[in-house]
Amino acid sequence: MSDLFHAHGVIPGGSPGSHAANHQDCSGVRCPGPKRMTAAGRREFIRMGLAGFTSLSLPGLMQLRARAESSGGAKPSDRERTAVIMVWKPGGCSHIDTYDPKPNAISDYRGPFGTIQTKVPGMLFSELLPMQAACADKFTVLRSMRQGAGGHPAGSMQLLSGDPDTRDKPKPKYPDWMTIANYLRSQEGPRTNPLPRYVGIKPPLEYNGPAYLGDAYSPFVVAGDPNSPTFSVPNIGLSDPNELRRLDRRANLRQKLDTLTRAFDQQGEMGALDEFEQQAMTLLTNPKTKEAFDLSQEDDATRDRYGRNAWGQQLLMARRLVEAGVEVLTTSLNGPLCGRVQNWDDHAVNHHVFDAMRFRAQAYDQAVSALIEDIYQRGLDKRVLVVVTGEFGRTPRINYAASTGVGNASAPAGTQQPGRDHWPRAFSNIWFGGGIQTGQFIGATDKHGEDSIERICHAGDFLATIYNHLGIDAANTLIDDFNGRPTPIVDHGRPIAELTRRFS
Q1: What's the rounded mean pLDDT across residues 219-239?
Q2: Which residues pair with 221 in a beta bridge?
């Protein structure tokens, strides 16, 4: 059991003690980062996280449990905080075949799909998105995104951390916006909500992460398919007295904690460890945590509306969690619902791009449209901002290559099939909630969809818009990096005016 968090990738985000214990007031624009532990120490920190808090005596454990239960979950102030959901389409979604169709382009560009009218006059979508077209008045389409990196690692790092480097790197140099938001919010004071501040439901961690902020600010990760009848989230809401007693029998854990103390004291990380343990204990002992993740609490009609598949239930869980007080929520739409290679990377060698778009369209359209409608129907639209995006678009000009393997949306190996490659010069994303004005489309691309030509927005603008909703001054906030250098959280861009709050 001591390795459960490590084995499942389930790491609760940190809280104020990890920083405030070692630094003075962070209310100013510069926020010194936490001191660093060694790589070996960091691994041991993660490995020992669950084991550490099991050293509590049973009376102490029950006292914590009673305190958690009597708190009744989050205080109203916690639940009313602004939050962001990012729905990530890894690999890059074709803008031409979704939100920015080009019906008048020649066949080399436009593809086989027809266009349909949306609820917003003058806004056309691909025929693949009828449910989103029917509720287009409840979201805004940004059609003129652009970034400078053509590879998946660099493209993801540009959009999610603001790293301007166009080279693909094995690990991020800068922390992503999700980790930064978790870290900065943790400096504001104790969190009374028993849920983690930052949760990732199959989050986009392949090319992103905490970098110099450290693992304490990584997400609580939920893996697996929430539509599966056997799905469960480990390490939350224990109710079996035998399990609780088993925690108490770890008599040697105090010695291990003493070892950790000696390892971390010089690095100034004990505050982070204390908060890690406290968060882990709360997850284990507070029944409210289990309820928040429990989709059986939703009625059948709601679950059906989202779609009885992994994507639909991921987005339903995302809504449940932000409603319960999670402040940063990321989820990736990947896996078998995408096709043979399980992502949106529709090169001809991977997928028949148009078969792949058809294959995933119904689940995608249904899940996203349900989330859109739910955010407004449940009164979350002022507090919760949602963005649906990938790292870039796909080449407007269709190309052909031999398939490398048969599978969903891919012909047998050697078969010539159409594809679209990486395209960072123009792509689309959609935004809703957050108090923004909806029923609009921002920017435009040229007649082929090759270049953003109107109201061009870059990665820095994307990030500044998210930070703005969370109440973070992106232009003036610095965090110390590994070497103690004050580093801006984003050094370019400003909030996209059309995507900022329109009412209180």
Answers
A1: 86
A2: 200
Q: Which residue ranges form the domains of the chain, and what is each CATH number?
A: 1-71+238-285 (no CATH), 81-231+294-499 (3.40.720.10)
Helix, coil or strand: residue 480: strand
Q: Are 433 and 384 contacting, i.e. CB atoms less than 8 angstroms apart?
A: yes
How many C-beta neighbours within 10 Å does residue 481 have? 17
End-to-end CA distance of the chain: 46
Q: Phi then psi for 332, rounded to 5 degrees?
A: -105, 135
Q: 3-class SS at 420? A: coil
Q: Torsion angle of alpha carbons 395, 207, 209, 486, nearest 10°?
A: -70
Residue 266: phi and psi, rounded to 5, are: -70, -25
| Res 229 pLDDT > 60 | yes
Decide if 201 contacts 317 (C-beta within 8 A). Answer: yes
Handedness of CA 198, 203, 206, 208 (dihedral sign): negative
* Structural tokens at position 238: 């224990």
Q: How many CA within 13 A on the CB side of residue 154?
A: 14
Residue 352: what residue type?
H
Quick one: tokens of 345?
A: 């990377």
Helix, strand, coil: what percent of the chain each, to 5? Answer: 40, 15, 45
Residue 132 three-state SS:
helix
The pairing of beta strand 328-332 with beta strand 198-201: parallel
CA distance 362 to 358: 7
Dihedral sign computed on CA atoms, order 256, 257, 258, 259: positive
3-class SS letters over 379-416: CCCCCEEEEEECCCEECCCCEEEECCCCECCECCCCCE
In 3D space, the residue among 309, 301, 403 whose CA is nearest the CA of residue 347 turns out to be 403
Nearest to 132 by CA among 333, 294, 373: 373
| pLDDT per residue as tens digits for the range 348-389 | 999 999 999 999 999 999 999 999 999 999 999 999 999 999
Q: Please state the φ and ψ torsions of residue 486, each to the nearest 5 degrees.
A: -65, 120
For residues 359 and 409, is the Cβ–Cβ distance under 8 A?
A: yes
Q: What is the DSSP letter of 296?
A: G
